[in-house]
Amino acid sequence: MTASLRVDVVVIGAGFAGIAQAIALREAGVESFVVLERAPRIGGTWRDNTYPGIACDIPSHLYELGAHPWPYWSRAFAPGAEIQAYLERVVTEESLSPHILLNTSMSAAQWDGVAWRITAMRGTGHPDTSASEIIADHLVLACGRLTEPRIPAIAGLGTFRGPLFHSARWDHGALHGDLTGQRIGVVGTGASAIQLVPELARRGADVVLFQRSPAWIVPRGDHPVDEADIRRYADDPSALRAHRERLFAEGEQRFASRSGDENAAAATRDVALDHLAEQVPDPDLRQALTPDYAFGCKRVLLSDDFYPAIASGQVRLEPSALERASGSTLTAASGATYDVDALVLATGFETAEQPYARLVTGDNGETLAEHWSTGMAAVASTLVAGFPNLFVVNGPNASLGHNSSVLISEAQAEFAAALIAERTAAPFAYPDPVRVTQAEEDAASRDVAQRAARTPWVTGGCSNWYVDDRSGRLTLLWPGTVADFRLRLSSARVRSRRLTQNEGAPS
């Protein structure tokens, strides 16, 4: 192992959350930090996901960092490549590149009683593949939830003869350009599938779509941004701020329909059913596409072209899961068989059990994975008992089903940066690490459970990625508004400052 590097902060991940954290540290006056990114480029989700049709399902002008408004989005819902370019532009404008170690992963992190000792490994393909040690007073995990593709256990999958890959690892060499005559199987009907399936059909492919359960889908309303609006936003920042505030308010209003308010849910459910009826005339096909669980139980999806693709006949809906593969023949749970040339798994990600958690060891020799063995938990979604000076951004209960999760990541990043800055600015006055107790973490989990108790996420009759199957707890989604979350962070910071000042000051 090579010689140690000593910094105030190590941030893991250079997606939206990690970049937000780097900016927040700078704003708080903390300059001694590095960001470890295992890939050769920054971008996270938007670097990894390049499948045909990929775009954001949050309005473009709300899916951006507050300090970097962008007036030039081409569409109401930004294509993935534009978001990736935006993040790279932010890194350049903030001069963050010297702080970012690309192609470098965290292979272990150990709290030694005083600081974090992080083992950093250069990635495969880099000339230097040796490990190095970084000692940091603070560790921020900004690894995201949509990083490790979930590969379902399908009998015989290894016998499939054609191109086979997850939607987040799109093989552009295998499927690109005109796909006329290509028979493509797609597994899953989540957010990725409803974007890529219409695009495959547009390119001429014959698609069979394996649907375990249908999704609630509402109109997307996507369109090119008017050139006059682009000029107005570029010339008048206040106009762009006002537009962003309107989008934020609309998002907060959606919380009612997603969280189980009967009137709001019924009204939006009717919108979804009308959308389905207008675009799918066949009653049997319509029935197969109608969910049998409560509105909001799963992620509500947005699309203008998914139903027309199904109704066109070019996409064949198989209303059951893929059960097994034998060579190029796929067999559904219904018994139906299909011969395909390529198979795409749009099957989501390992969200409940975060892969990074097994690499992080706290002050009692317990790994984060062991600590979270019955589901992720944290005080204010950020601080974990038994893991001093550790901050998790975009982790437990930090996702949203109604508004932009970037807002949550930014709030957490600012919270973490403020606490870190207080310690680094006066280390002798504040020698003790930032800690929370197990009792506080348990109380935070009870608060989430109470908020979620009557919501469709836990009572709606579906299986979703918001809930950890090991405990039945809501561990991914924040069961409140963005305003609620910010208030929660504010209260946690007041408590953390009081603890540091009263218990940490030298006697």
UniProtKB/TrEMBL annotation:
Domain of life: Bacteria
Domain FAD/NAD(P)-binding, first and last residues per copy: 8-220
Name of this chain's protein: Cation diffusion facilitator CzcD-associated flavoprotein CzcO
Annotated organism of origin: Microbacterium amylolyticum
Biological classification of the source: Bacteria, Bacillati, Actinomycetota, Actinomycetes, Micrococcales
